[in-house]
Design brief:
three-stranded antiparallel sheet, Ig-like_fold, Ig_V-set, mainly beta, Immunoglobulin-like, single chain
Length: about 120
């Protein structure tokens, strides 16, 4: 089975932060249909933090589903001007250290996956 599609991988950005800080992780490509945020701890499999999916009828803002046991420290903000999102993690703790990345999925091009990554140290 041959897979085709468009892929973009952005160079990871490293954020050095302190316990108690807030970090904004931007997924700055045009979100058309679905954005998913993942986290990954050292030597562990990635885990889904949240997905944000556009409603095909109402394209004003995506509906958000949290997978990583919803936590009030996590917020997804939406920028309607460029259809991008930002994951905000407040009151950072040592357990938040890891690699974070978003993927974008487009219904028009089901194989297209964009990866944007951030590493929190």
């Amino acid at each position: 089975m041959e897979t085709t599609g468009t892929y973009w991988i952005k160079t990871p950005v490293v954020h050095y932060i302190s316990t108690g800080d807030t970090v904004d992780l931007s997924c700055d490509r045009n979100h058309r249909d679905k954005t998913m945020w993942f986290g990954q701890k050292t030597n562990r499999c990635p885990f889904i933090i949240l997905s944000a999916e556009m409603n095909s009828e109402r394209r004003e803002r995506p509906s958000v589903k949290f997978y990583w046991s919803y936590n009030s420290r996590l917020t997804l903000t939406w920028n309607p001007r460029n259809n991008s999102s930002t994951l905000i993690i407040r009151n950072i703790s040592e357990s938040d250290e890891g690699f974070y990345f978003c993927t974008l999925h487009d219904r028009m091009d089901n194989d297209r996956v964009d990866n944007f990554s951030k590493h929190l140290d």
